[in-house]
Every structure is written in C-alpha cells, then in structure tokens.
Amino acid sequence: MPLPTIIAPSLLAADPSDLTAACRTCEAAGAPWLHVDVMDGHFVPNLTFGPHIVEALRKKTSMVLDVHLMLQHPDRFVTPFIQAGADIVTVHVEADHDLSATLRDIRARGAKAGLAINPPTPFSHVVPYLDQIDLLLCMTVNPGFGGQSFIPEVLEKTREAQQIRERAGLSFHIEVDGGVNPANAAACREAGVNVLVAGTSFFKSAQPQETLRTLMS
C-alpha cells in the first residue's frame, strides 16, 4: 500500500529571525512535518541549528520535527536532539560512525531512525541498513546550502528503494530534500517518494498553502 504524501517545509529557508512565525506558516498551510537541517561546518560547509533550537521549536509546535543531522560524528548528538524534542533523527551513511549502532540508539531513545545518502554516493551503501530504518532520505542536491537546483538522477535511487521496500515488505518513508518544487514534485512521487522537503519553494511562496497543495497533487 502506498504511503501518504507528506510535505515537510525546511526551516533552512525560513526567516531565521522569527522561527515562531515559520512554525505558524507551516501549520496554517497544513504541513504535518517540519524539516530541521543541522550542519556542523565539517561534514558540510555551513553551520545551522543546534539542540536548543529544536527545544524551542518543540515548545511552539506539535508538528513532527524531522531532524537531519549533517554531522561528521552524528552518534555524539543523538541524545541531545532527542531530548530536545526531535521525533525523527536522520544520519548520513557517509559520516564517521558505527551506523547500525547509531540507528539502534535512535530507536532505543524513542525516536524514528532515518538514513540519508548524498547524490554521489552509490545506492548500494544504504541497502544493508534498509531494514533498520523508518525513513530513507535521498538528497537531491549536494548538502550544505539551500536554493540549489534539483538533481533528477537521484530519483533512480528512490525507485530502487521503493522496489526493495515492496519486495522485502518494509515500510520506511522515502524522502527527498533539495530543489523540490511544484515543477518536479510529481516526478518525485512517481519515483516512490512520499515525503517531500520543500524549502525555498515553500517559504518564499506568496501563497504557501497553495504551494503545499500543489506539491501534494
């Protein structure tokens, strides 16, 4: 059975001076998830949000907090982010950690475990872990900065993930992040994606609710 389509606006594209307003915009548009990109300046060349921001967001919204750790050592930060209120914690296959142990730790602490893969990384690198996760994030840009162009070739990975999911009877979400907009959303959904992270296309829209509706249909 296909999983429902979920739109997760990306906080990276919101006004950093008023994250409460960003939450209100997402809720008013009907977005069930909020995507929070965490960057350490090492794994990717940028710095963003820490656990204190997630804690502040948790006090302001009941949306699912989909926290994406773009960190060199994500295992060291699982506990702080879950304690802060993260519902989903996604770590990278390319990072420096014992991946299976990190995924187990996330689940043991009561959160959903996500696994992310960058565009240049062969899909085979995540296959051994697909039965250990609740979400697979296929990056559709090279991570680090918002506003980049969508890489359509990544959808080959989401198609393969969908095939494995169905063949193995698994139920993980398939998510894409980077350059997602109304022009490519349908292609994403047709390629097995059910969670679309929308940053610039959502927060820079004059009509966020209509943009969300278009992304879903």
Walk me through what this model shows.
With 217 residues, this protein is of the alpha/beta class. It has one domain (6-216): Aldolase class I (TIM Barrel). The protein has helices at 19-29, 51-60, 78-84, 99-108, 155-168, 185-190, 200-203, 208-216, and strands spanning 6-9, 33-39, 64-70, 88-92, 112-117, 135-139, 173-177, 195-198. It has eight helices and eight strands; from the N terminus they run βαβαβαβαββαβαβαα. The radius of gyration is 16 Å and the shape is globular. Strand 3, helix 3 (78-84) and strand 4 form a beta-alpha-beta unit. The model has no long low-confidence stretch (mean pLDDT 96). The longest helix is centred in the C-terminal third of the chain and has 14 residues, at 155-168. Strands 1-8-7-6-5-4-3-2 form an eight-stranded parallel β-sheet.
Write the layout of secondary structure elements.
Elements: E1 6-9, H1 19-29, E2 33-39, H2 51-60, E3 64-70, H3 78-84, E4 88-92, H4 99-108, E5 112-117, E6 135-139, H5 155-168, E7 173-177, H6 185-190, E8 195-198, H7 200-203, H8 208-216
Parallel strand pairs: 1-8, 2-3, 3-4, 4-5, 5-6, 6-7, 7-8
